[in-house]
Amino acid sequence: MREIEFRGYDGAEWVYGTAVNYDKYTNTWYLLEHGGPDDDWIPVGRVGQYTGLKDKDDDKIFDGDYLEDDEGFVWKVYFKDGAYYAECEENDLMANQLLSKVNLHCQVAEVIY
Protein backbone atom coordinates (compact mmCIF):
# COMPACT_ATOMS: atom_id res chain seq x y z
CA MET A 1 0.00 0.00 0.00
CA ARG A 2 1.34 3.45 -0.84
CA GLU A 3 2.02 6.15 1.70
CA ILE A 4 -0.71 8.81 1.97
CA GLU A 5 0.87 12.24 2.16
CA PHE A 6 -0.07 15.74 1.05
CA ARG A 7 2.01 18.84 0.47
CA GLY A 8 1.04 22.49 0.46
CA TYR A 9 2.80 25.85 0.58
CA ASP A 10 1.90 28.16 3.45
CA GLY A 11 3.57 31.22 1.92
CA ALA A 12 6.91 30.66 3.63
CA GLU A 13 7.70 26.94 3.48
CA TRP A 14 6.43 23.56 2.34
CA VAL A 15 4.11 21.87 4.81
CA TYR A 16 3.56 18.10 4.74
CA GLY A 17 0.60 16.32 6.24
CA THR A 18 -1.70 13.34 6.20
CA ALA A 19 -5.09 14.97 5.68
CA VAL A 20 -6.60 17.94 3.83
CA ASN A 21 -9.77 19.93 4.16
CA TYR A 22 -11.26 22.52 1.81
CA ASP A 23 -13.41 25.37 3.10
CA LYS A 24 -15.61 26.41 0.18
CA TYR A 25 -16.82 29.54 1.99
CA THR A 26 -13.32 31.00 2.31
CA ASN A 27 -11.85 29.18 -0.73
CA THR A 28 -9.01 27.91 1.47
CA TRP A 29 -7.22 24.56 1.69
CA TYR A 30 -6.13 23.33 5.12
CA LEU A 31 -3.47 20.70 5.68
CA LEU A 32 -3.14 18.67 8.88
CA GLU A 33 0.57 19.10 9.52
CA HIS A 34 2.27 16.00 10.82
CA GLY A 35 5.37 16.31 12.91
CA GLY A 36 4.39 19.80 14.00
CA PRO A 37 4.18 20.83 17.63
CA ASP A 38 0.42 20.33 17.92
CA ASP A 39 -0.56 18.64 14.64
CA ASP A 40 -2.32 21.87 13.61
CA TRP A 41 -4.52 22.55 10.59
CA ILE A 42 -2.44 24.95 8.48
CA PRO A 43 -3.97 27.12 5.71
CA VAL A 44 -2.05 26.46 2.48
CA GLY A 45 -2.18 27.27 -1.20
CA ARG A 46 -2.72 24.52 -3.76
CA VAL A 47 -2.44 21.00 -2.33
CA GLY A 48 -0.68 18.11 -4.04
CA GLN A 49 -0.93 14.44 -3.08
CA TYR A 50 2.08 12.12 -3.08
CA THR A 51 1.80 9.77 -6.06
CA GLY A 52 3.58 6.88 -4.35
CA LEU A 53 6.37 7.11 -6.94
CA LYS A 54 9.84 8.66 -6.86
CA ASP A 55 12.00 10.11 -9.60
CA LYS A 56 15.41 8.84 -10.70
CA ASP A 57 17.04 10.83 -7.86
CA ASP A 58 14.74 9.13 -5.30
CA ASP A 59 12.73 12.34 -4.70
CA LYS A 60 8.99 12.01 -4.05
CA ILE A 61 6.70 13.01 -6.92
CA PHE A 62 3.51 14.92 -6.03
CA ASP A 63 0.43 15.69 -8.13
CA GLY A 64 1.11 18.93 -10.02
CA ASP A 65 4.90 18.56 -10.14
CA TYR A 66 6.84 19.12 -13.35
CA LEU A 67 9.40 16.50 -14.35
CA GLU A 68 12.26 16.75 -16.82
CA ASP A 69 13.32 13.60 -18.68
CA ASP A 70 16.78 12.56 -19.90
CA GLU A 71 16.16 14.26 -23.26
CA GLY A 72 15.11 17.59 -21.75
CA PHE A 73 11.34 17.22 -22.26
CA VAL A 74 9.11 18.56 -19.49
CA TRP A 75 6.20 16.51 -18.13
CA LYS A 76 3.35 17.65 -15.89
CA VAL A 77 2.01 15.14 -13.35
CA TYR A 78 -1.78 14.87 -12.99
CA PHE A 79 -4.45 12.44 -11.72
CA LYS A 80 -7.17 11.10 -14.01
CA ASP A 81 -9.48 8.07 -14.01
CA GLY A 82 -7.85 6.50 -10.96
CA ALA A 83 -4.22 6.78 -12.08
CA TYR A 84 -1.35 9.26 -12.16
CA TYR A 85 -0.19 10.38 -15.59
CA ALA A 86 2.56 12.56 -16.98
CA GLU A 87 1.78 14.83 -19.91
CA CYS A 88 4.45 16.06 -22.30
CA GLU A 89 3.13 18.96 -24.37
CA GLU A 90 6.42 19.27 -26.29
CA ASN A 91 6.32 15.82 -27.91
CA ASP A 92 3.08 14.56 -29.50
CA LEU A 93 4.39 10.97 -29.72
CA MET A 94 4.64 10.77 -25.93
CA ALA A 95 1.81 13.16 -25.07
CA ASN A 96 0.31 11.23 -22.13
CA GLN A 97 1.93 8.33 -20.33
CA LEU A 98 1.28 6.53 -17.08
CA LEU A 99 3.58 8.10 -14.52
CA SER A 100 4.96 4.67 -13.65
CA LYS A 101 6.36 4.40 -17.22
CA VAL A 102 8.35 7.65 -17.10
CA ASN A 103 9.22 8.41 -13.47
CA LEU A 104 12.57 6.57 -13.43
CA HIS A 105 13.71 8.49 -16.54
CA CYS A 106 12.87 11.89 -15.01
CA GLN A 107 13.72 14.16 -12.15
CA VAL A 108 11.49 16.69 -10.42
CA ALA A 109 12.19 19.91 -12.31
CA GLU A 110 9.75 22.35 -10.76
CA VAL A 111 7.50 22.22 -7.76
CA ILE A 112 4.32 24.28 -7.98
CA TYR A 113 2.01 25.54 -5.29
From TrEMBL:
Domain annotation YopX protein: ranges: 6-109
InterPro entries: YopX-like_C (IPR023385), YopX_protein (IPR019096)
A Pfam family annotated for this UniProt entry: YopX
Lineage: superkingdom: Bacteria
Protein name (record): Phage-related protein
